[in-house]
Specification:
two-stranded antiparallel sheet, 4% helix
């Protein structure tokens, strides 16, 4: 789904359901049963933008050495202020994994909530 309710507002989303037909349950369990995402962005006053991205991944069990994972709910938010249009210089406040911490591959690899400021630009 790809919508643009206005020239300054975009919404993109998707959803998938996976069915694996195999006699090996390990292979079947190594795929998330469903995934979904919604990505939104809004721009105003020629130099402000706000985006929010939500992702869902169903539980799965990695093949090989990885640990089983429970379902994941991930939310990232970003505010950006464009300081200079010519050099694309901007300052951003970014929050990642705002809903919950979750493991990736091994239980010890925890993706935690992160909030940071980024300044970028070109010349």
């Amino acid at each position: 789904l790809d919508l643009s309710p206005s020239p300054n507002f975009d919404i993109k989303s998707g959803f998938s359901v996976v069915h694996v037909d195999t006699v090996d349950s390990r292979i079947e369990d190594s795929f998330p049963g469903s995934t979904a995402f919604i990505v939104t962005s809004y721009k105003w006053a020629n130099n402000h933008s706000l985006s929010a991205n939500y992702y869902y991944i169903d539980r799965m069990e990695w093949l090989g050495n990885g640990d089983p994972t429970s379902s994941i709910n991930k939310l990232d938010v970003r505010y950006a202020y464009l300081l200079d249009r010519d050099s694309e210089t901007r300052i951003e406040l970014i929050g990642q994994n705002l809903l919950e911490d979750y493991p990736d591959y091994y239980r010890e690899n925890i993706n935690e909530k992160v909030i940071f400021v980024r300044i970028s630009g070109g010349f």
